[in-house]
Amino acid sequence: MNIEKIVDHDYLGKSFREIAAAPVSALRGVSEADAKALQHAFGVRTVRELAELNFVRWAGALATLADAEAAAGDLAGEGLLDDAVEMTFPASDPISVDSGITRIEVAPDRVDAHADHQSAGRQQVTAAAAVKGGARKPAK
To answer: Which of 11, 32, 37, 68 is a plausible cystine mate for 7, CB 3.0–4.6 Å?
Structure first.
């Protein structure tokens, strides 16, 4: 942080302890009239007293939490968007990626075993067992 941007010229080169003990008007942009108003309204005379004022601390905490909340919301939104894109255009399915076709998943109990490349073998074994009169076991 560049101290020249936050304190008046008269306080450059002073220690932080000296600046904290200085009148509020030592802060760049705070006039003598502003300092008197702060003293009248809140009893604040020094930079330290302003920093320790509960209203200032609460406002700083709320601003920090609001920024964190906004950042988390942005990240969550980006994550949801990334997940949606991955589900719509799965990188693991080169045919749909190359052709621009979106794969539509079908519920497992309605899968056509002859066309389904993922569980066709399992469905054929179950169907064969049923035809031979064996007990039909659900595929795992």
So the answer is: 11
Mean pLDDT for the stretch of residues 94-105:
55
β-partners of residue 46 are 23
In a domain, 106, yes or no: no
pTM of the full structure: 0.50
Number of structural domains (the chain) is 1
- Phi then psi for residue 92, to 5 deg, are -80, -5
DSSP assignment of the chain: --GGGTB-GGGTT--HHHHHHSBGGGBTT--HHHHHHHHHHH---BHHHHHT-HHHHHHHHHHHHHHHHHHHHHHHHHHHHHHHHHHHS-TT-HHHHHHTPPP----GGG--TTT-TTTHHHHHHHHHHHHTTPPP----
